[in-house]
């Protein structure tokens, strides 16, 4: 099937067209610059930007794919989680395309999209794997089966901040530009990751093995900065040391989950999976443990439309019943499976 995917959960208006696990065309607009002076995404601004961008992005993706509206067999749109007003725009657009083209609609879970997108880079997912989803709003260790049919098993989530959120907050603390993740990644290349030993939260012998916590790490960095106010801050060293603490914690727990659950594949996805140190350390540790690492190319790690189209392609190919047009968005939907509202 040829599937049109629409993603508007945050500040990216993403459209992708995928058929049988192959990306035919995509387009991405972002309102990132409009949020920069507020230090974070402003929902109303994001929603209005989606409204302006959605139709042009769909046309753009179709053009790039060399397709017409009549070629679309199904539509998938993010129905949650995300900023309520932002999700609504993409879901409403998805419903409109579904109705006007007379094709099925799938309201899908954004995080399942983050996982599915790796199919575009590395082919079908294995029957079973451990997935670490690390993004701006989530940090979850999961056990995945057939993504189209099976429920997802949560091994552990974050007790407080998400990993991406920690990157964004530390960047702000260090006076780095928004968004913080890519800025820290860049400046950390000039720093020494062993300069400062920041805590590896939740890694003690009595801590829950798959649970994360990043607010304490954020406080530890803030305290260090506070204590060294009298000298010029070694921003690159702080960034590299913080990044090392996050990469170490994430990969340690992910590898432990693979061992404990006899999984031979680790799927590392979400915006923070674009981080160069997280990728390198995951590669190093997976190689040492004989675990196959799957991590999408950086541009597919952050929000995009191709990930939603990939998920729709999986659902349509598996003959999963589509959603009714009165399907509602859920801004805080927990990940149970590919479809936001579960199988019908
Ligand atoms: P969610 O997917 O949980 O709803 P989101 O959609 O906002 O959240 P993503 O687009 O998946 O999140 O990822 C954005 C996050 O990834 C931001 O917090 C950003 O700082 C972080 N990020 C992006 N690139 C990098 C990088 N190179 N290093 C570290 N973090 C990064
Ligand atoms: Mg974004
Ligand atoms: Fe995301």
UniProtKB/TrEMBL annotation:
Compartments, record wording: Cytoplasm
The enzyme's E.C. designation: 2.3.1.234
Residues annotated as domain Gcp-like: 24-309
PROSITE patterns per UniProt: GLYCOPROTEASE
Enzyme class: transferase
Cofactor(s) annotated in UniProt: Fe(2+)
GO CC annotations, alphabetized: cytoplasm
Catalytic activity: L-threonylcarbamoyladenylate + adenosine(37) in tRNA = N(6)-L-threonylcarbamoyladenosine(37) in tRNA + AMP + H(+)
Family: Belongs to the KAE1 / TsaD family.
Identification of the protein by name: tRNA N6-adenosine threonylcarbamoyltransferase
Gene field: tsaD
